[in-house]
Amino acid sequence: MSDEATAISIDSEADTAGRLVWYLRGVWAAFSVPGLLLASAHIGFAGLAKEAGLTLVQTVFMTGTVWALPANVVLIGGILSGASLPAAAFAVALSSVRLMPMVVALVPELKGPRTSKWFLYFLSHFVAVTSWVLAMERLGGIPREMRTSYYAGLGPTLVLFNMIVVAVVFLLADSLPPAVAAALFLLTPMYFLMSLWGSARERAGHVAMVLGLVLGPAFHLIWPGFDLLLAGLIGGGGAYIFHHMTRKRAAR
Description:
Layout: H1 3-29, H2 33-51, H3 56-65, H4 69-81, H5 85-96, H6 100-110, H7 117-124, H8 129-138, H9 147-172, H10 178-199, H11 203-222, H12 227-251
Helix pairs in contact: 1-9, 2-4, 2-9, 2-10, 3-9, 4-5, 6-8, 8-10, 11-12
C-alpha cells in the first residue's frame, strides 16, 4: 500500500472515530435536565392516551411518528371530541407548523460540506423544542463536519427514550395518581417557556412571548376554537412591528 493510500485510510478511520465520539456525546446530551423534563411530561401524556382509549401500540406509535408532544395532545383532543380523521389531521398539522422556523434555523447549522440532503431530511423529523434548544446552544462549539453526527445521537435518542417511557407508564398508568401525572405534564410548558426566553437572541422574541401569554387566555374566553391561532398571529405580528421599529430607530 502506498503512503498516500495509507494516509487516506488513517484519515478515514480518524473521521469515523470522531463521528462516533460526537454521536455518543449527542446521545449523552439527551439525558440532560431538559431531556428528563420532557420524559416527565410524557408520563402525563401516556396517562392521557390511556384515558382516551388508545392502545399501547397506538400510543407508542404516536410518540415516534408525530413526536412533538403538543401535537400528540391535540390529536388526542380530536379523538376525545369525536372529530373526523381529516379534521384531527388538520389540527395536528396546524400545531406542527410552529416547528418549521426551527427546522429552517437548525438545518443550515447542521449542514456540512459533504452532508447529504436526505440525511438532513431524516434528521429534521426529530426537531422539536427540546432537541432544538439543546442543539442551538451547543452546535457553535462542535466542528461543522461533526454536527450531523451529534444531532443524530441527540434527536433519535430523545424519541426512542420517550417511546420507552410512554410504553412503561402506559402499562403502569393505573397505579399513578392523577395529580402527579398532571403536575409532571405541566413541567414541559414551563421548561419550554424558560428555555425559549433564555435563548431569544433579540428583544422581539420576548415581546412575542409576553403577547402570547396575555392574548392566549383572552382569546380562549372569546373564541376558544381559534385562541392559539389568533394569539400567534397577533403576538407574532406585534413582535415583528416592534422589531422593525426598533431597527429603524437604531439606524437613525
